[in-house]
Each structure stands twice: as C-alpha cells, then as structure tokens.
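ARCHIVE CARD
Drawer: 12
Card no.: 0347
Subject: one protein chain, sequence and derived structure
Cross-reference: see card 0346
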Amino acid sequence: MRDRTIDAVRAVAIVGVVLGHWLVSAVVSDPGRVTDLHGESPLEYAPGLAPASWALQTLGLFFFAGGFAAVRRRSATGGTGRNRMRRLARPLLALAAVWVPAIVLLDAVGAPAPTRHVVVSLVTHPLWFLLVYLALTFAVPVLRPLVARAGGWTVLPAVALVAATDVTLFAGHSSWWQPVTVVAGWAVPYVLGMLCATNRLDRHGFALLGVGVVGGTVLVLGFGYPASAVGVPGQDFSNLDPPSLFTVALALAQIGLFLLVRPALARVLRRPAVAVPIEVLTASPVTIFLWHQSALLLVSFGGLLVGRPAGLLDAPDAGWPLARLRWLPVFALVLAALVTVFRQFESRRVGGADGGAGNDIVDRCR
C-alpha cells in the first residue's frame, strides 16, 4: 500500500514553496514609469516577519521525500537517474517554449532592462532545485551502500562542508567549492529520507527536532546567522545560497516534527476530505513548481493595466503583507489554469515504489 504520509510531506512542501515565493517575491513598478519593474522583498521592510519563513521554506521536506522515494522506487522498479532526466525534459521544454519567445518579445518591444531581468529571474530561479535533485538522484548508487553501512553518520561530511563554507562566507570570502555545498547541504535531508524508507529513522523524531531547534537558535543568537530562512536583498549572508547550517537545522526540525506526528497523520489521511487535496497537489508537482512564478508574473502584468495595485505592484512596506494576502487566491486560480494546460507534459508511468506510492517531485506513479 502507498505511504500517504510521504504524499502529505510532498504536499506540504509544494504549498510551502509556492506560498513562500508568492509572499516574498514582490514585483515592484516604478511610480514614474509603471512598466519598469524590479524585485524586492518584504523582509527588507519588516525583518520581524522572518519567523514566517521558517514554515514556508520547505525545500528540506522536498529532498527528504525525494530520498525516501529513491530507495522505494529503485527497490521496486530499478529506476535510474537517466529515466528521471527524461521525465523532466518535457515539462522543462514546455516552459522554455513559452518563455524564451516571450523574453525575446520583451526585448524587441523595448521593455526596460530591469523588467526583463525580473522576468528571467523569477522564471529560471526554480531550475536550480531540479539540477540539485538530479545530482542527488544520480548519486543514489553511491549513497545507498554508504547509508546501509554508516546510517545517519553518512551526513557528517556534508554538514562539515556546509560549516566550512559558512566560515569562509562570514569572513567575506567566496569558495570554489560553493556549488558543491549546494548539493551537500540538501544531501542531508535526502539521506534522512533514504533512512526513513528503510525504517531506520522512526524513533529519532525527538532527537532531530531537538537538534534542529536548539542548533538553529544557537546559530542565530550565538553566531549571528540571519533569522530569515530565505535570502534578503542587502544582507551579506544568505541562509539559502548556498544552504547554511541554519538551513540544515531547519530541515532537521521539520523532519523531526513529521516523524513525531506521522502515526496520527496516517490515521487522518484515511479520510477522503484530507486525502483528496493531497492527491491533487501531488499529481503534477513539477508543473506546479515550474509555473507558480509564471502565475505571479501574469497577474502582475495584468495589474499594470490599473496602475500599482496594493499588494501587487507597490513597494512591500509595512502594510504590504496583508494586502498581498488578497492576491493569493488570484495567483492560485491562474496557476490552476496553467497546470491544467501544461500538466500533459509531465510524464507518468504505471507501477510504483515509494512503498507502493511511487510518486515524488519528478515521478507520479499510480
């Protein structure tokens, strides 16, 4: 039977990423020239909102569910990274087929450079996640024997590399291994997902939650890490680019909390009223992930017809977050329309793993 609790993790991760981007990605129109757009963050104006980012930065849960699925899927079907790459190609090509001509058109009609920049940035930013996910998928044949022998100790080299990168960045230096750190940082929750799939993590919920909460608190209060789980323009240090020790601690806390509530969650998920929305959210995860910022852009472009609507094209000052909430249903409706059109490009195949579930961020198996 399928593991619906992992489906729920994916659903929470999808909602967290989408809402997080919609709430921190402010597309601001210049009052003197409304078509001149640039990006800002409400966290620049209201740093007190940083704790909200702890709930909305759910990429650790994505990678945790991915590691779980990698073990279950490979055990059941012998799936490979190349298969995963092929299944990603079609939705990526569909995105490119729409936005490459659109960006060329913006250039042809003389759209301001900042406008073109914000469009390219929002459309392409989610792609880094897919690259890291594929890298970890290809690494599964190496990770599986390591995890089988060393268990949770497998993550220690990755944590050490993240710590070394943090030290160099706090000292004001960049490091040649920073791209490797991006993979290493997200390998931590990925490996924990692999352990969970082999039933070697079930009793460690309290430990993971405790280490995550205490570790994150010490890093922020004792070592000066930013409190925001996402990057804030103007800050010298970002917890997300590359993932820092605080990001690792946040992932541990989220995974620990999931393990603690998992038995109760399994009972709740037997109810169709709860299970059906999760089925809908996890039916086309790649399509949702690739197109959610496009929905924000399309609504923002529509807002230009009426000036600078509050919460949409104005500066994200103190009153902006509440005004932004009114636009979330509009973003969701546009995203639903985009998913309806483009989900056909997201490959599906029959048969499955994932404890019978067989769907992950890049693979929906029924």
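Annotation on reverse: Residues 349-353, 355-366 have pLDDT under 50 and may be disordered. The longest helix spans residues 81-108.
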